[in-house]
From TrEMBL:
Residues 691-765 form the ACT domain. Its EC number is 3.1.7.2. InterPro entries: ACT-like_dom_sf (IPR045865), ACT_dom (IPR002912), Beta-grasp_dom_sf (IPR012675), HD/PDEase_dom (IPR003607), HD_domain (IPR006674), NT_sf (IPR043519), RelA/Spo_fam (IPR004811), RelA_SpoT (IPR007685). This is guanosine-3',5'-bis(diphosphate) 3'-diphosphatase. Residues 1-46 are annotated as: Disordered.
Length: 766
């Protein structure tokens, strides 16, 4: 499978670099700016050009600042091993391939990762791009290193139907490996970051594809893990390659907003903030900055605003020593400049999902320009920049128990495992992960005061699943701030939500219409899928037995060898799988019954006239109305108990029940195996939808009178439509729930007695 990132190697033989292993003392190579082409405008360089080539000697010298000599020696050994494995391979840029793993290891070393992670970074492509396998890595280095490298490696040995499926499967493999060791994703983020820094040598199509994947997957993952500096660089690089014109327009707009005056304004605010801190004898750092371009673009896109409508494109950060000082500084800045109502956020008391903590406030600064100020401690600043990586960078530091990125990441990884178990395939799993990577900022409380962060727009059902899957599956109602509320109610910041559950309750398919979180959606779909499978198996058993009985057999008496041979031939694992296929309408019970009874040839080869009535047998399937999702009632004729009915197989859905006189059945008259003989059970359960049309004279309140009469006889109205005819008469079309034809007849007789009613009839749309 072709690689999907920049690190694709050119397999043409190449001489090994001079001075030993590639990259050891290679000449400097310039970092190129983005190249103009026929589809992109000139883009300003995102990083300074002219950097000298990073050498293995530089890498080892840097490691001396925090690793012992024996571990540095192991890293050097890994470098030599990787250089030999990649010998002869080159990147698209033409440089020896080993430069890339060395650059990835450099990024991780700057995050002060442990030596095994650095070894895995130096070897992260050897399984994928060289003959070296996982077992050889485990033997040469360690099982831990081999697992890390394997987790980062793509699935290249399998065949996939499409690039999207291959990408999804590889990302699923990586994310699941990440649940076992978080360092897998840190290596992958460093790998993607270096690939994005050196993307210029790729084709325009590859640049756009890789940039889109970076913006959709990797930058959000970096954000979810709290590694802010990687997120910002990935976003800006992806933005530059995917939307180069948009980036350039925003950059020019920023420069055109009185560039010199803006710089002067930033200096003025910084000076004012420092002076205010000195007056109160508060030690702290003040930094002013312009928000990065992709952040400005995303705000414009998400809030549908033009650039001229954005005010807070400049932000200032005040870093102090303690939490209580943060709140003192907040009072100072609110005295210094007027705060913007509704724009204050306390992420110290309520941290973000990735552990981020800070005070955010928007102010009206000099010249009426809106500015944003962030106030945090030094520890919060380290966590804001490094996130989960701070677990390795600052192991000896004190971390807040309420905002520990490692613990929060562990919770997220547990959610990933649950989603993987319930997702149908890798593409579906990846879609759920994408949803989960964009959390909102709605914070709600449990009755005991525990805080839950949910995506904006989340409903009561989303909150129930955030507490626990079992709570979500069995929720029936909720109290929001002690008042009863529907399950579809969107939640707002600060609300207290109490979930009411019932032991026998189960998810409703209608919940999928309003839930917004990935965990809720995956659990609902998974639960419904399991219910449908069980219902399909029960129906499939009934259908197969009904077809076997006239042939003198039953499921329990089938010849084991013939049954086993049929299951092996069809690729089904068990008899239950066969029942499920029959119940879903994917396989026809009459054909399977003749095959398993051993008379397939006789039955199938005999002319229809000779078979005569052998296809018609007294064992009809009884429809109770409680079969669930595998028995569907046709919307064209809407059968109800008491109607003569028949059914047809619908692959993937089960069976669809029609009225016997339904005109949509006309094309199936000669296809006996596509139809199924059914009848109503003696005591059908539940309620069934049907439609009636009532012609009335146009009088005030007539609709309410008719609706009251229908409700009086124990029927629920699902839908009503009015059709104006001539100004004097109006047609009212009702979709109502009834128990039987007798129940419907009682309703129609009652409605006919209402004076304005001229005529009433049952509607059939076939």
């Amino acid at each position: 499978m072709p690689r999907t990132d920049e690190a694709t190697a050119d397999r043409r033989p190449a001489a090994r670099p001079e001075s030993g292993a590639a990259g050891s003392d290679a000449p400097a190579q310039k970092v190129q700016a983005l190249k103009p082409s026929d589809w992109t405008p000139p883009v300003e360089p995102l990083s300074p050009a002219g950097d000298t080539r990073y050498l293995i000697s530089d890498f080892c010298a840097y490691l001396e600042s925090y690793l012992p000599p024996e571990q540095i020696s192991e890293c050097y050994h890994a470098y030599l091993f990787g250089a030999e494995a990649h010998e002869g391979q080159k990147r698209k840029s033409g440089e020896p391939y080993i430069y890339h793993p060395l650059a990835v290891a450099r990024i991780l070393a700057e995050m002060r990762m442990d030596y095994q992670c650095l070894i895995a970074a130096l070897l992260h492509d050897v399984i994928e791009d060289t003959p070296v396998d996982k077992a050889q890595l485990a033997e040469t280095f360690s099982e831990e290193v081999a697992e890390l490298v394997d987790g980062v490696s793509k699935l290249t040995k399998l065949d996939f139907k499409s690039r999207a499926e291959a990408q999804a499967a590889s990302l699923q493999k990586m994310l699941l490996a990440m649940t076992r060791d978080i360092r897998v994703i840190l290596i992958k983020l460093a790998d993607r970051l270096h690939n994005m820094r050196t993307l210029d040598s790729m084709s325009p199509e590859a640049c756009r594809r890789i940039s889109r994947e970076t913006l959709d997957i990797f930058a959000p993952i970096a954000n979810r893990l709290g590694i802010n500096w990687i997120r910002i660089e990935l976003e800006d690089l992806g933005f530059a390659h995917y939307w180069p014109w948009r980036r350039r327009v925003i950059q020019r707009a920023l420069q055109g907003r009185g560039g010199g005056a803006r710089v002067e304004m930033i200096g003025l605010v910084e000076t004012a903030l420092r002076h205010a801190l000195q007056q109160e004898d508060i030690e702290g750092r003040v930094e002013g900055r312009q928000k990065h371009l992709y952040g400005i673009y995303r705000k414009m896109r998400d809030k549908s605003r033009g650039f001229s409508e954005l005010a807070d494109v400049f932000a200032f950060r005040v870093t102090v020593d303690r939490v209580d000082t943060c709140y003192r500084v907040l009072g100072l800045v609110h005295n210094l400049y007027k705060p913007v109502p509704g724009r204050f956020k306390d992420y110290i008391a309520i941290p973000k999902a990735n552990g981020y903590q800070s005070l955010h406030t928007a102010l009206i600064g000099p010249q009426g320009i809106q500015i944003e100020i962030q106030i945090r401690t030094e520890d919060m600043q380290r966590l804001a920049e490094s996130g989960i990586a701070a677990h390795w960078m600052y192991k000896n530091g004190v971390q807040s128990s309420t905002a520990n990125p490692a613990a929060l990441a562990a919770d997220w990884l547990q959610n990933l495992l649950e989603m993987q178990r319930d997702a149908g395939n890798s593409v579906e799993f990846l879609e759920h992960v994408k949803v989960d990577l964009f959390p909102g900022e709605v914070y709600v409380f449990t009755p005991k005061g525990r805080i839950h962060s949910l995506k904006r727009g989340a409903t009561v059902v989303d909150f129930a699943y955030a507490i626990h899957s079992d709570v979500g599956n069995t929720c029936v109602a909720a109290r929001i701030d002690r008042r009863m509320a529907p399950l579809s109610t969107p939640l707002r910041n600060g609300q207290t939500v109490e979930i009411i559950t019932a032991p026998g309750a189960r998810p409703n398919p209608g919940w999928l219409n309003f839930v917004v979180t990935a965990k809720a959606r995956v659990n609902i779909r998974g639960h419904l899928k399991n219910i449908k499978q069980r219902e399909a198996q029960a129906l499939g058993r009934r259908l197969l037995n009904a077809e076997l009985t006239p042939l003198g057999a039953e499921v329990e008496t089938l010849e084991p060898l013939r049954l086993a041979a049929y299951l092996e031939e069809t690729g089904l694992g068990s008899l239950e799988d066969l029942f499920g296929e029959i119940g879903l309408g994917n396989r026809l019970a009459p054909l399977i019954a003749r095959r398993l009874a051993g008379i397939e040839g006789e039955e199938s080869d005999a002319p229809a006239a000779e078979r005569g009535d052998r296809d018609v047998h007294p064992h009809r399937l009884a429809i109770r109305g409680t079969e669930g999702m595998v028995v569907n009632f046709a919307g064209c004729c809407r059968p109800i108990p008491g109607d003569a009915i028949t059914a047809v197989f619908s692959p993937g859905r089960g069976i669809v029940v029609h009225r016997a006189e339904c005109r949509n059945l006309g094309g199936l008259e000669g296809k006996r195996d596509k139809r199924l003989d059914v009848e109503w059970s003696r005591e059908p359960e539940g309620e069934f939808a049907t439609e009636i049309r009532v012609e009335v004279s146009n009088r005030r309140g007539v609709l309410a009178v008719i609706a009251g009469a229908i409700a009086e006889l124990g029927s629920n109205i699902e839908n009503v439509q009015t059709i104006e005819k001539d100004g004097v008469m109006t047609d009212l079309e009702f979709r109502i729930l009834v128990k039987s034809r007798h129940h419907l007849a009682r309703i129609m007789r009652r409605v006919r007695l209402i004076p304005p009613v001229d005529r009433i009839m049952r509607i059939t749309r076939s």
